[in-house]
Amino acid sequence: QTFRDDEEVVAEANATRYGLAATIFTRDEKKAWELASRVVAGTVWVNCFFVRELAAPFGGSRNSGIGREGGVWSFDFYCDVKNVAIKRDSFA
């Protein structure tokens, strides 16, 4: 699909309640970085699709997913944080 201008690209990409991933095809690297920063998505691919570095976080924005997994982010994704406070002299 082609678009009239960058504003239409961003508006169309963000006109959803989901935000798992987006793909941008362009010959202009500066424009790719600028558009990627404005699109609400957990992953943005530029001139490719479904390329994934396993150490990088993966997950969606908005109603896509429940967090990030991959790399060190997996620890937070798969674990629950718990705080336990114990009065040290209460067992004597």
Helix-strand topology string: HEEHEEH
Uncertain spans: none
Structural class: alpha+beta
Count of discrete alpha- or pi-helical segments spanning 4 or more residues:
3
Q: Report the mean per-residue pLDDT as an integer.
A: 81
Beta-strand segment tally: 4
State the major sheet: 2 strands, antiparallel
Strand residue percentage:
5-15%
Number of domains: 1
Shape: elongated
What is the spatial order of strands in the main beta sheet? 1-4
Helix content: 25-40%
**Terminal residue distance:** 73 Å
Radius of gyration based on Cα positions: 20 Å
Write the layout of secondary structure elements.
Layout: H1 6-13, E1 18-19, E2 21-24, H2 29-38, E3 43-46, E4 61-62, H3 73-78
Parallel strand pairs: 2-3
Antiparallel strand pairs: 1-4
Brief rundown of the structure:
With 92 residues, the protein is an alpha+beta fold. The chain is built from three helices and four strands.
